[in-house]
Amino acid sequence: MKDSYLGFTPKTPDISSLGKYIDKPISLSNGSVNVSVPIYTLPINSNLSIPVSLQYNTQGIKVSEVASSVGQGWNLSSIGTISRSTRGKRDNYNDSPFYLQSIASAKNSLMNNSTGVYTDVWLDQNAENVDLEPDEFNVSLFNMNFKFFYDFSSNKFVSTPLNNIKIIPTLNNYGNIVDFKIIDGSGNTYFFGKSDDNDNRFEVIEEVSSVSISNDNAFSSGTDPQFGTWLLVKITTNDNKTIRFYYDNNTISVTDLAKQDVYLTSQYKYFANNFDFFNGKYDVVSWASGNPVVIGNKYPISSEIAKTKEGNVYNVYSSPGIADKLISRIVYENTEIEFIKSTTARKDFNAYSLDKIKIKNNNNVIKTYQLNQGYFNSEFPTPMNDFSRSNNYIFTPNFDRAIPRLKLNGVSEYDKNNQIISKHNFEYFPGQLPSRLSFAQDFFGYYNGHTENIELIPNINFKYANSVKSAGTANRAVREDYSKIGMLKKITYPTGGSTEFDYENHTYQAINDINEVVIGNLFSMETKYVFFASEQAADPNTGEQLPPEMNYEMNWEFEEDTSVDLNTQIEQVFDENNGANNSYNIIIYRKVNGNWQIFTLMSHTIDKTAMFPKGEYLLTAHRDVLTVNEGGMFDSAGGFTLMMSFLGPVKNNQQPNTNPEVIQNAGGLRIKSIIQKENNVELLRTEYSYNETVGGKVYSTGILHGYPLLVTENFYEGINKFYGVIDYPFRNSSGSNIVYGQVTETSIDNVNNKKIKKEYFFENNAPLEATDMATIEHRTRTPYMGWKFGNLKKTLSYKQNDNGSYALIQKDTIIYDRKNLVLNENFGVRIEPRNRILLSTFGGQSPDDYIYKTDYKYEYYPLFSDFSFERKKQITELFNDKTLITSIDNTYSNTHYQLSNKKTTFPDTSSNDISYAYASEKGNQLMISKNMVEIPLETISSKTMGTTSKILVKSETIYPINQSEANTKTSGLVLPISVLSYEIQNLSTATIEVNFDKYDSKGNLQQYTTKDGISTVIVWGYNQTQPIAKIEGAKLTDIQQSLVDAIVTASNTDAAEAANNDESAFLSALNTFRMNASLSAYQVTTYTY
Question: Which domain of life is it from (predicted)?
Fold first, then answer.
């Protein structure tokens, strides 16, 4: 039967590494900081540059995580991808009406199925065959990260959050996506998969095959071959610059299963939660020769599980066949960045690592960066004694192969002569790491050292009839010392200085989860039991019957309002609701205002749940002389048992906080401190705290978003399904994530012997925009709302006084708003067929005669998005007895998502006002068609003092308004024609500040004229990539074309770097150009590179 938690194919290591930044962006709001090693920045134009750097993720390393091609925890910043996470089946974008009709049919059929006698026919035929869930796409670029989905009701892709970006797919005849174009708000176009020109490369990471392997159902095929990730192949800027990206195959084909890359994606087990499948309550019985014969069961799936699968651990593995690729080159004009992969295969994965990065100009190597790599655990020749190894089904060889992890030890920089210039060295927290297939994981998937675990199902109890049962044996507790192993500890810089990092586990105070049923507080709560029972009926020494009439009492106190399961079993008493005269009366009293009052009375076998308010209780039981049949036969007394079960706090001495009853630990790491040193002398220490103190008590400001799933109660009738789900990037729309409401940063300056303190306050809670139409207990499709969390709301800055106390010197507050809410409640539906329920045997003696109904569980989930923006910022500065307040009000009144007005009000109540107009406001349809909607075309600045306002500046940039004008004035490109300024006294009168007279075919400006009438000519060389001459006072028509051709040709020859060619010929040509008599009236400047 379908279970959405179990069907998943992990992405490649590099893509998964980028996915961590999409799910949890770098921010103090989640305890992460930016750690990177810059390699090179490729400048393109005024609004675009491509940084190449190595980034480290400080949020922790999960046991199941595969190191990227750089090394564990690191990734390469310049990779550009669009990754798809398939929901249900792969989307077909050619038939929106069919999808919408399917959603409508599903909704109607689910309603009919819940009220009708028989299963709805549409559900039986389509529930598992029709796509009802839109896929999720994740964009990861050096300058943007966001998600998007296809809204079949509007026939367009919708970004989360909303933005000005256009998403344009190419579809084949079957409605499947072939490639993508993304156009940003400045009109730059990013090509993914294909480049739309003569470059016929097709760069995708294809999920060729996927095999799901389980000890429950052996081998099964996963997803059909499909494009899982589209790679960035080209960028075309709005001024016609082109940057190309090239890739190498990075897959080593392996047919031996023992050497394949295997992921443990899930684990589960079943337990019945009552006796009904063992005591025959649901059996279908036929009488043969006067004897009862069981020929069926009312719930056949539940019965089969209870009798054959109960308590068995089932692992689900994925062996994805993915045609991975590794970036090999970035090429822009004469500059090339080359990425060279290792010549030897990795030990931990069937691929190659990134070995070197070379920066080239005109095909000459300028710099080389060598990645110095090794493997974690290489210092431990003997694997740790991990019980997981023998409990991984058929994957013991794969278990051992998954022990090494690629490690980046340092980066060395070499000059063009291959001489070392500098070196960064990295040091990590020591210790031995487990295999990626190990069960030694905390609830969030981080290493916890419990290698004795033989499963992932945690040691929690669940209600079984009138008693309890243990679901699993695993210790999934969070342990900081183990989760830090392998984390970056120290960076040593070429100067000899260093930065040291320390981490600690996350904490949280509250949970925000769309699931209505949460299994207690997993990390500090446990099921507690109170047993209240009669003594034995006979003296163990003499065997004589004890007196039947006896009283029992027991005191108990609840420290907070508590939901309690009450279970009573009373022997020799009729099971009657009106049993006030029964021989037993179990009465629970509650103390109210110092007096005992009856809270509940039980005189028969009962199983119920009651809410016990905080306070004192007295449990009493009185056994009277009445016993069997309540007829006074006191010699058959019988006994009683009362069990109360409830969730209560674990008394854990290992918790490092001072208030363990309220602060809960969670897996993953947050930054604790950063130390800057020079020559091993501490210069600056920065410490971070994520708590707040209220009324003398310490509380964590963390909120946990997304609760780890442990169990689905009654997954099948009477059957609980327990999970050991392992979280991977891109697995769900929202994984577990902790966001802090307050972070205190204290910097200790040891050089100047002073401290600086800042308190940051973040948005860490928001109502979940979701529909309640669901019968599935645990909701997997919590709408992605990541952009709503982590916004900085307030900053408090302090200085340290001479006496060591702190004084507030500045307070910044920010208020956010949103616009253009998108909420489609019928966006998708998840349907899972569960039980088969026997309706009738029609008197037959064979299961072939039986009529069954299928019980379907479902969940409707919405598409939610909006545009959130900073509406107001107030800066309050405190100087001794003075308070100065500056306010900034931002207005976004246009249909797009750009700032339309910014008003700054100063402490003296005067204000500056700047308004902006864009292509939409100016009606420039050509720019709108090119999506150049973020470029301000008009700016008006004004100042107000008291009641008097005046305009200070009004300027406007003129662009062509149609293609014909662009062809005439800007070489067919959408580039500025002129810049205007307006007279303050007469805003209708404009002055041309500068005219951009002529561009070449690549968008290079060749001539401009200022308002004083003086023109300047720019000559572009090096194959139209660099200016080589500037002639001030001249026009292009004033300069002989032969003079221009001579220096352009010389620069192109110089750029070619042919044999026996040096710069002397070019320098000579430039000298001749400058000395030419026809240019003597102009100021001439020449350039070489």
Answer: Bacteria
1018 or 699, which is more confident? 1018
Does residue 77 share a domain with residue 105?
no
Instruction: For 279-299, write each residue's pLDDT tens digit.
Output: 888 988 887 777 888 888 899
Examine the domain organization and report whether 720 and 586 are in the same domain: no
| Whether residue 359 is found in the same domain as residue 267 | yes
Q: Is 845 domain-assigned?
A: no
Predicted pLDDT of residue 842: 72
If you compute the radius of gyration of the chain from its CA atoms, what whole number of angstroms results?
36
Same domain, 172 and 117: no
DSSP β-ladder status, 754-762 and 742-749: antiparallel
**pLDDT tops 70 at residue 1058:** no
Q: Are residues 492 and 634 in the same domain?
A: no
Structural domain contains residue 1: no
In the prediction, which pLDDT does 211 show?
62
In a shared domain, residues 275 and 362: yes
Query: Across-strand partners of 365?
Result: 360
Average pLDDT of the residues in 1015-1033: 95
- Is the domain of 146 the same as that of 112? no
Helix segments in 875-997, DSSP class H: 919-922, 925-929, 963-969
Helix (H) or strand (E) holding 98: helix 96-115
Same domain for 595 and 482, yes or no, is no
What's the CA gap between 26 and 58, in Å, rounded? 9
DSSP code string of 113-148: HHHSSS--HHHHHHTTTS--S--EEEEEETTEEEEE
Q: Which of 909, 927, 907 is nearest to 917 (CA)?
A: 927
Burial of 350 (0-12, 13-18, 19+ CB in 10 A): middle
Tell me the CA distances in angstroms from 169 to 162, 180, 182, 1016, one per residue in order: 18, 4, 9, 43
- For position 587, what pLDDT does the model report? 85
Q: How far is CA 911 from the centre of its chain?
A: 41
Of 649, 670, 692, which marks where a domain is finished? Answer: 649
Choice between 1074 and 92, residue whose per-residue pLDDT is larger: 1074
- The conformation of residue 224, written as its DSSP 8-state character, comes to P
Number of structural domains the chain divides into: 4
Note the pLDDT of residue 318.
Answer: 82
DSSP secondary structure, 741-784, as one string: SEEEEEEEETTTTEEEEEEEEE-----------B--SS-S-PPP
Structural domain including 1061 reads: 1014-1089
Residue 824's alpha-carbon distances to 109, 840, 865, 910, 977, in angstroms, are 20, 40, 9, 45, 43
Please report how the helices 1064-1075 and 1041-1056 are oriented relative to each other, as an axis angle in degrees rounded to 10: 160
- Is 376 within a domain? yes
- Chain segment 16-62, per-residue pLDDT in tens: 554 444 455 678 999 999 899 999 999 998 889 999 999 999 999 99
Q: What is the pLDDT of residues 635-656, one digit of tens each?
A: 455 566 777 877 665 443 333 3
Per-residue pLDDT band for 573 (boundaries 50, 70, 90) equals: low
DSSP designation for 62: B
pLDDT value at position 868? 92
